[in-house]
Amino acid sequence: MGVVAVLRHVWLTRVRGTERARDVSDAVLTALAGLVLVASGLVGIWNGEPAGSPWVHAGPLAVGCLAMLGKRRHPVAALLAGVAVFAVDVALGGSVGLLLVLFDLVYSAALHAGPRAVLRLRAASWALVVLSLLVGWTATGELRITVFLGLQSFALVTTPLWWGLAVRRERELAALARARADDLRDLAELRAAEVRAEERAQMARDLHDAVAGNVSAIALHAEAALAHPAAPGGAADRERAALEAVRAAGLTSLEEMRAMILLLRADSGPLAAAPRLDRLDGLLAGARAAGLDVRLVPARPVPPLPAAVEQAAYRILQEALTNAAKHAPGGRVEVTAAVSGDRLGLRVDSEDGRRGTAVPGAGLGLLTMRERAESLGGRFAAGWSDDARSRWSVAAELPVGVPVERPVEVGR
Q1: At residue 355, does pLDDT exceed 70?
Q2: Which residues form the Histidine kinase/HSP90-like ATPase domain (predicted)?
Q3: Among 109-113, 291-295, 303-307, 340-344, whose mean pLDDT is lowest?
Q4: Considering the chain, what is the average pLDDT of its residues?
Q5: Domain spans of the chain?
Q6: Residue 370 host element (H or E)
Q7: How far apart are CA 16 and CA 34, in angstroms?
Q8: DSSP-assigned states of every residue in 68-98
Q9: Which of 107, 210, 274, 322 is 20 to 30 A from residue 59's alpha carbon, by CA?
Q10: pLDDT of the residue at 380
Q11: For residue 325, what are the contacts with CB-CB under 8 A and spacing of at least 6?
């Protein structure tokens, strides 16, 4: 069973793997079958007696099989050549091997020839049947012989022609079915795109009407509070600094919200620039305004990076600093951003003097940072350090990828 499977695999992939290989294998197999028929004495089928040696039919058989090699690219020319060789073979008495060649060439012409050539071929086949009937009746005057000649010509030409046309129609119907399936798939994709566009538009409207409005109100109230002069004093200065931080965060959120709304509305004109590492100084300033003691560890300048990497890095650092502000207010934070080899390393260490069992920010923040890193093929880790400083560390590695033109430097 294994040998049969191997032979079948070789036959389908090597011998019959391409159209050219199929044409060559058809010609070779027909030649072998014709030689076996010649050796069996199946010659002289038209005059009833072999004319000399039966191997004289091997020459026309070889030429006919060579004509079969062009039956796919030049079906009409191959058929005409086969008819000429068949006429020579008939003059020598005829052989069954040439009948196989002619049968294959007529079938291939019906399958591969152009529409106008097929119409002419059909007309010629019926003309041959009628001509054979007329010749038989004129030459013999016997109805039995006349009908026999008509049936012979019909079987010789019209049968392979009908077979080839049937296969051709099936292929055309299959091609139409595939084209219709492709059209239906394209239509389904268009409908799905319309549904997605409507959903994105609805999300954009919700962001604009609900979230953006509330953030705008926060920024306006903070600005109104800042408009009043404040009496000097430590508490008042701290409250004013907090209001300024609220106002700055609100304005930044509005800007990013606008970018997201425009991104959801794909036809709303140019989009706002996505956050990049060149805005890291502003991010650190916001963290300091929120009460953190932020220190950027000295690092080499960050080389040019793809926009997707810079955006993911910015968001990871932003979320890590936000978690530090929530869970370690007033604590010390060290931020590191540096490229080593083909990886961008990010690290945020926050110290608050406490080491509890609960994981700070163990919710959507950590999940979002991990998804951003892993979506680019990077790695992410967060947890308590094992040293005595009781630090909560967030670390990520992002593949640098292909550099872009804009140089970026991470400053203090």
Answers
A1: no
A2: 308-398
A3: 303-307
A4: 75
A5: 2-185, 277-412
A6: helix 364-375
A7: 20
A8: HTTTTTSHHHHHHHHHHHHHHHHHTT-BHHH
A9: 107
A10: 92
A11: 287, 290, 291, 292
